[in-house]
Amino acid sequence: MTVTTIRLVATDLDGTLVRSDGTVSPRTVTVLRRVVDAGAVVVLVSGRPPRWMKPVIAATGIDSPAICANGAIIYDPRADRVVEEFLLAPVDVARIVAVLAAAAPDVRFAVETGADTYAVDGYRGGWHQDGGVRPCSLRELAGLAAAKLLVYHPRLSADELLEFVRPRVDAIAEVTHSNGRNLVEISAKGVSKASTVALLAARMGISAAEVVAFGDMPNDIGLLRWAGCGYAMANAHPVVRAAADALAPSNDADGVARVLEDFLGSHKYMPEPERASCEGC
């Protein structure tokens, strides 16, 4: 562990901060508020689009800029608006769709724009929990700029699909997954949770050594490796546990809260009263 003073806590939501029943426990809410009161910044970092962040923001009261769609979007909860985007360009969406459709005719695609999900017929990836998926043709989909291009296969697991997709598109995009479904998520080259947390931290004058991060799935690996200390949850994917500096208890055991309680109890890790500021991030 190379963390010095904790000035920023970056935490994934599903499978990490959020329990399996979709709730955030009172214990976790209390601890997050204590961290903020101690002068640190808490950044919610998720594969979710902004519209799915709102229940967790409301439950926790954390209103600093949130990182959505695996780093593709910075969302300001206070203003309820997207302030910055790092999108996969339509030309790259079209190239990837063409390559993967030729290599595996059974794949189906969807695009998350940040505001909506557009999906071709046969897509069953489940990344439209709000029922707001908009049907579209493959030609229409290939003309969209994507926060995430979602690739579904009816038989391959997420791990198997990741191994199939990554070498075919790695030169022009980032590929990961965050679920147990038959789905992978593709972002613009160089865009990840880690890259966007690093950007926000730099704007606040915070170094990686002053960041503690939490996650559970492959889309969290880069963030856990970048942070001064990266915690994988006890329920995390095996590759995430292997990549982390340390293990936290599971999401259903309030693992994030329990680790942060230990840091709060050891005052040498908490910032001085002067707060890190995320104004203008």
UniProtKB/TrEMBL annotation:
InterPro entries: Cof, HAD-like_sf, HAD-SF_hydro_IIB, HAD_sf. Pfam families: Hydrolase_3. One of its GO terms (molecular function) is phosphatase activity. It comes from Acidothermus cellulolyticus (strain ATCC 43068 / DSM 8971 / 11B). Keywords: Hydrolase. The keyword Ion transport does not apply. Gene3D superfamilies: 3.30.1240.10, HAD superfamily/HAD-like. The keyword Metal-binding does not apply. One of its GO terms (cellular component) is cytosol. This is Cof-like hydrolase.
